[in-house]
Amino acid sequence: MGNRTPIYNEHLAAGGKMVDFAGWEMPIHYGSQLNEHHQVRRAVGMFDVSHMTVIDLSGSQVKAFLQYLLANNVDRLKDSGKALYSCMLQPDGGIIDDLIVYCLNPDWYRMVVNAGTSEKDLTWINEQAGAFDVNIKERADLAMIAVQGPEAIDRLCQVLPDCEPVRALKPFFATELDNLFIARTGYTGEDGVEVIVPNDRAASLWSELREAGVAPIGLGARDTLRLEAGMNLYGTDMDESVTPLESGLGWTVAWEPQERDFIGRKVLEQQRKDGVKHKLVGLVLKDRGVLRGHQKVLVGDAGEGEITSGTFSPTLGHAVAFARIPSCEQDHAEVEIRKKHVAVEIVKPPFVRNGKSCL
Amino acid sequence: MSEIPSDLKYTSSHEWVRIESDGSVTVGISDHAQDLLGDLVYVEAPEQGTEVQAKEACAVVESVKAASDIYSPIDGEVLEGNETLADTPEIINNDPYGEGWIMRIQPAEEADMSSLMDAEAYEALVASETH
To answer: Touching check for A34 and chain B: CB below 8 Å?
Structure first.
């Protein structure tokens, strides 16, 4: 039996089809993945993301430590509650995980990392922390609910006594309210929040949100929503064998100030100078057919690449994908689907933002 | 519980087979199979005249989640693929044994129907796979 979140019984009651996800029993859908996808784009839905790991870091050298640990620079977090997306790298530049880090105050940072990598992450973080005065604490006592969609803030506000601080939150900012940690972040390309809630309050908050009209959404729709939104999935679109520069995440690497010596910097500097051999791009198939992970991509004289994740896009009505291909200037390619070659366009993700096509 | 009509035959790869009065057979996927796949978004039905062999992949259905091959239950020749599925693949989810049929096959003379399961045997198979 896998791990269960505090909301497990609510998933069963709502007809959730439970599957194993990184050792957790999670709902893949509650009947129709397609309807759930549209529900988030058009109105509002919520995801149980309690399987993700919350790590609190504190201590007098916490900032210096994070500036060493992460490829993005936490010095950018000048305002309280500000969030930053970053990769955590090996010395060779390979991606250990991608994560969000929040700065609550100068001595307290909060990180949210992936479920499948949390053990590896914690081991790595503790190893690197050796010389720094920093406390690292996994918060297994906390659950997390993501409320996403154009109506997310309005629905959330129906269940909170005072919602003004939430309405005032700018994207990528977080605040503490009534023992909840509420961040205007997400993994869908829609407006919304991620709410970190004590385990013993998670199921009741979930039920209150349902009564306020927020539909439960499974991990299946979470995947199609994030792909449309142009967001990478760790372990699928990137892993320890590739760097951020080969994963469409060059924008998350803080090169300035030059004297900041973060783990992996030397290799990234060299790669930046020499140019990367591969890049992560978006593919669009307007004809019939579905792009899938591991299908071969033929990019003319530039060579071959591979789809890292692909799906039918419910919002667009045709298939989209991420692919890692040789660096080139081409804007079209062919994908091999069951031994047939189909023409695709090469684009820069995202494919969909705030319910609308970016193509 | 998924629906398993008693007047149809079934394969271990979850196709259903209806033997028509003119000797042709109609093939689709079972209610259990469409439920496992989830929302279908793409169907590639075989073209008329395609020679097919028993247990040979001859059509593809894809849901948001995954692609799945459809196998011919018998040797024969494709009389017709269900072309309406190209634009409305979700018919298979809504009506797997009716409008959601995938192909019609004219069995070869030596075609062997004896290995097809009846509803009872198929129900046992579904039960064994879901436990």
So the answer is: yes
Each residue's pLDDT, cut to its tens digit, for chain A (359 residues) gives: 789 999 999 999 999 999 999 999 999 999 999 999 999 999 999 999 999 999 999 999 999 999 999 999 999 998 889 999 999 999 999 999 999 999 988 899 999 999 999 999 999 999 999 989 999 999 999 999 999 999 999 999 999 989 999 999 999 999 999 899 999 999 999 999 999 999 999 999 999 999 999 999 999 999 999 999 999 999 999 999 999 999 999 999 999 999 999 999 999 999 999 999 999 999 999 998 999 999 999 999 999 999 999 999 999 999 999 999 999 999 999 999 999 999 999 999 999 999 999 98
DSSP letters along A106-142, please? Answer: TTEEEEEE-STTHHHHHHHHHHHTTTS--EEEE-TTE
Q: State the fold for domain B9-112.
A: OB fold (Dihydrolipoamide Acetyltransferase, E2P) (2.40.50)
pTM of full prediction above 0.90 = yes
Provide the CATH number for the domain around residue A320: 2.40.30.110
A29 touches chain B (CB under 8 A): yes
| ipTM of the complex in this document | 0.84
Token pair in block for residue A36: 């759930």
User: Per the structure block, which two tokens stand in for A225?
Assistant: 């929503």
Q: How far apart are CA B8 and CA B113, in angstroms?
A: 12
Residue A29 is nearest to which of B38, B60, B62, comparing CB atoms? B38
Contact A202, A46 (CB under 8 A): no
Domain borders along chain B are 9-112
* Number of residues that this document lists for chain B: 131
Are A43 and A147 found together in one domain? yes
A248 lies in some domain: no
Q: Which of residues 281-340 of A touch B (CB under 8 A)?
A: 288-290, 292, 311-312, 314, 338
Rounded-to-integer distance, Cα A294 and Cα A296, Å: 6
Q: Which of B41, B60, B86 sits opposite A312 (nearest CB)?
A: B41
Contacts of A32 in chain B (CB under 8 A): 38-39
